[in-house]
Amino acid sequence: MGLLGKALRDAMELARAMKNQRPEDGGAPSLKEAVKVALSQDGYKVLLMSRVREAARRYHVPGVNHALRLVTTVLYSIEIGNDIELGEGINFTHTLGTVIGGTSKVGSRVKFMGNNTIGTAKDNGCPVIEDDVVIGCGARVLGPIRIGRGAFIGANAVVLTDVPPGAIATGIPAKIHVRRAGDPEVDDGGRPSNGNGTAAS
Ligand SMILES: CC(C)(COP(=O)(O)OP(=O)(O)OC[C@H]1O[C@@H](n2cnc3c(N)ncnc32)[C@H](O)[C@@H]1OP(=O)(O)O)[C@@H](O)C(=O)NCCC(=O)NCCS
Known about the structure:
- By secondary structure, this protein is of the alpha/beta class.
- The chain has one domain (3-177): 3 Solenoid (UDP N-Acetylglucosamine Acyltransferase, domain 1).
- Helix content is 28%, strand content 18%.
- The chain has helices spanning 3-18, 31-40, 42-58, 64-76; strands at 78-80, 85-86, 91-92, 98-100, 105-106, 111-112, 117-119, 128-129, 134-135, 140-142, 146-147, 152-153, 158-159, 168-170, 175-177.
- Strands 3-6-9-12-14-15 form a 6-stranded mixed sheet. The chain has a 5-stranded parallel sheet with strand order 1-4-7-10-13. A 4-stranded parallel sheet has the order 2-5-8-11, with no helix packed on it.
- Strand 14 (168-170) and strand 15 (175-177) form a beta hairpin.
- Coenzyme A binds next to strand 14.
């Protein structure tokens, strides 16, 4: 998919999140809603610059990747490394203080609440974060671990082990609280209905 296509899909996913909808809910946000998100959300601008960086790397355009990395760091205090794979519609609710480094992989619609670190624990590999994960403010996710789809990482947690899909991880080092089917916050698909909405920034 080309740069424009990716940028549009990102805006659509973020607009959907604003309405607290998920792709499986069906329907699509209007172009007007997507443009509104694109213009109003700092997180979208970071994502857009990441898409341009990806394209610059793919087509070996010198300097752009490095320059835009600096721009996002200076303007938004967020640092996204060169080898990061970002899914669609990543939601940087607050951009301040977030670092995604090394070879981390981030799925679609993952929500970063701000001041998060995703990277290596002891130079031993980086996390894979699956789709629809929410990462609370101040949380660190470190090492060659997998955060399962729809998991919720609590504020200020330091996560050093795998987190199963839909589970909650809190504390230092993080303890896992597995949500059971039938819990009010678990929907029929076994995923938490913690919402992936975009907080006002
Ligand atoms: C983890 C979180 C999702 C709550 O999950 P929950 O399952 O609904 O948890 P509850 O509120 O029922 O609390 C369950 C227990 O976990 C504790 N707890 C909740 N959040 C915690 C956290 N971040 N760290 C440590 N313990 C936490 C509660 O004190 C409670 O402890 P207790 O059983 O000893 O009384 C929420 O507290 C959180 O951290 N949200 C992130 C919010 C955020 O980042 N906001 C940013 C806004 S910009």
